[in-house]
Amino acid sequence: MHDAVIILFLFAMGACVGSFLNVVVWRLPRGESLSHPPSHCPNCNEKLRWYDNIPVIGWLKLRGKCRFCKEPISPQYPIVEAITGGLFAFYYVMFFITQTGPCSTPPRMLAFNLDWPIYFLYMATVAALLAASLIDAKLFMIPLGICYFIAFIGFAVHAIVDTSGMPGSVITTSTCSAMAIGGGVGLLISLLLLKLKILPLSFPNGEVLEIDREFIQQEIDEAKAAGKEVPEMPPLLSSGQVRMEICKEMLFLIPPMIGSVIAAALVARGDAIGHAWDRAMTCEPFAAFAGALFGALIGAFVVWIVRILGTMVFGRVAMGLGDAHLMFGVGAVLGAGGATVAFFLAPFFGIIFALYRWLTGKGHEMPYGPYLSMATCFVMLFYCPIYDYLRPGLEGLAIILSGRMGQ
After folding, report:
1. What sign does the CA torsion over 256, 262, 267, 273 have?
2. How many C-beta atoms lie closer than 10 Å to residue 272's C-beta?
């Protein structure tokens, strides 16, 4: 009964969050305020009654039509509310009842005890990823505000609640933490140089993936058919021009990479600087923040380096830069290992969706953001067994890289 009450409560809470996500999905891409005006019918602009906003029930009671103008209300609203509520309940069952979820650092804790702050951090991330995926699937864009929201709550919650060995903790090694701080300083330098226009901005007229171009052309055709103002198609760049633009992003990554290397070298010397850093790592809030920052930087870097290499090889934009921002936020929540595993699992979710489209002939081409989101939600549950499986190989690789093989 105790679990049943909690599950019902979390479903209701998740459904309310889903109701807000519907607002985010509709208003954020249009640059509208998320709080004003209050919920209203987009057709007749009449303010909705409070009881019409009850998640799922309100739509069913209205039979899917506006109370005032009788215009149909998209079934997306109750579906998103029900899915979000179901996810809140599902992750509670997996984390707290089946004990499937975040793991502690060795030695393993004898009793699984996931703190509620980590649960709500993960649920806030899942909700944000759902909103980002819905927007990306429709408009082929990921609002950066969602990515930065995920990163902010990741930094904040981990810095406040993380302790060494706690399930879901992102506290990492002293060297990785130093690389995070050095890389963070380098990132700030790159942003400053970009603002001062010392570093050039890549794709100043916007980058357009082939799938984006098809979507934009569809919008232009629909606007022409409706007699509306026709948006301009972004200029088509040659392969050489695309490679030149991506080289600008390589310049942007140099300061963070140099900062990480210098910081790691200073800590590894074992002198006063190294000892001072080790003492700083005993402050768990600082260590947790550094671990979250390391995860964010690694999450973004893995996507960005694939984007750069793919673009250089094929002469066309390989991945959207929004995916790198999204994984920056995911890395701040899951840590470096979880973000990396999520990135490499994402193609498998893409294959599953492609098979569905092939078998049913339904659906349309999807951007990569939803697959990254699905992989992230999967990793929240199954990172521990994946890590345990990969650990021997990773430890062997670390020995090789550190030059200690055979000692």
Report:
1. negative
2. 8
Residue 354, number of CB atoms within 10 A of its CB: 14
How large is the C-alpha radius of gyration of the chain? 23
**For residues 55 and 81, is the Cβ–Cβ distance under 8 A?**
yes
Q: What is the pLDDT along the chain (407 residues), one digit of tens a residue?
A: 688 999 999 999 999 999 999 999 998 988 888 877 777 777 787 777 777 788 898 888 888 888 878 888 889 999 999 999 999 999 999 988 888 888 654 433 434 455 789 999 999 999 999 999 999 988 888 999 999 999 999 999 999 999 887 888 999 999 999 999 999 999 999 999 999 999 999 988 776 665 566 666 777 777 777 676 666 666 677 788 889 999 999 999 999 999 999 999 998 887 788 889 989 999 999 999 999 999 999 999 999 999 999 999 988 888 889 999 999 999 999 999 999 999 999 999 989 888 888 777 766 667 899 999 999 999 999 998 888 887 777 666 556 645 543 44
| Tokens found for residue 129 | 């990823």
Query: Residue 47: helix, strand or coil by DSSP?
Result: strand
Q: Which residue has the tokens 């490679």?
A: 243
Counting Cα atoms < 13 Å in the Cβ hemisphere of 59 gives: 17
H/E stretch holding 116 reads: helix 116-139
Measured distance CA(288)–CA(238) in Å, rounded: 45
d(CA 323, CA 147): 9
CA distances to 4, 6, 86, 242, 358 from 1, rounded to whole Å, are 5, 9, 18, 60, 44
Q: Apex CA 356: angle with CA 354 and CA 360, to 5°? A: 125
Nearest to 313 by CA among 243, 248, 253: 243
Amino acid (1-letter code) at residue 356? Y
List the domain boundaries for the chain: 1-98, 125-401
Q: Which three-class secondary structure state does DSSP give residue 65?
A: strand
- pTM (global) more than 0.90: no
Q: How far apart are CA 122 and CA 330, in angstroms?
A: 10
Triad 101, 56, 45: Cα angle to 5°: 125
Q: Which two tokens stand for residue 341?
A: 């595993």
- Smallest CA-to-CA distance from 207 within 175, 178, 248 is with 248
- Would you put residue 227 in left (φ > 0), alpha (ψ -120 to 50) or beta? left
Distance CA 291, CA 391 (A): 19
